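Thread: flavin-adenine dinucleotide complex, take 2
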Amino acid sequence: MTGNRSAVEPDIVLAGAGIMSATLAVLLKELEPSLNIEMFETLGGAAQESSDAWNNAGTGHAANCELNYTPERSDGTIDISKALDVNVEFDLSRQFWSYLEMSIVPSLRSGV
Ligand SMILES: Cc1cc2nc3c(=O)[nH]c(=O)nc-3n(C[C@H](O)[C@H](O)[C@H](O)COP(=O)(O)OP(=O)(O)OC[C@H]3O[C@@H](n4cnc5c(N)ncnc54)[C@H](O)[C@@H]3O)c2cc1C
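Output below.
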């Protein structure tokens, strides 16, 4: 965050402290724990723009209720292929967050 620059040259710099930077930082740390990642944010704290719970619809992109993922074809049938693709991606991200919840959060809570 602004004002908390580390003395070590960062391996990776992330602009913005929204959910995308946070997720990318966690993924990168999982792949390479020794990475030194620096995150910059112009606002006073993390997740104050679109990622703030009050600034988005909060439905998650499971693609279950997004009409733009299920366009109508010229013959009147509905194309659900994009909805299926997005749903798989959503499930993959849920698996990732479940893994973090199970493997990392307990050790953070216990301080081990
Ligand atoms: C009205 C609305 C409804 C939505 N509904 C849903 C929904 O139901 N389901 C869903 O999954 N998604 C939804 N979204 C989308 C979702 O909220 C966004 O895709 C997601 O939060 C984007 O995260 P982000 O980290 O990319 O951006 P942000 O959360 O906006 O984070 C970007 C950060 O970067 C900072 N920043 C910008 N420029 C700089 C700079 N030069 N230097 C430092 N910091 C900088 C900003 O201050 C901000 O904090 C919705 C979005 C909106 C606007």
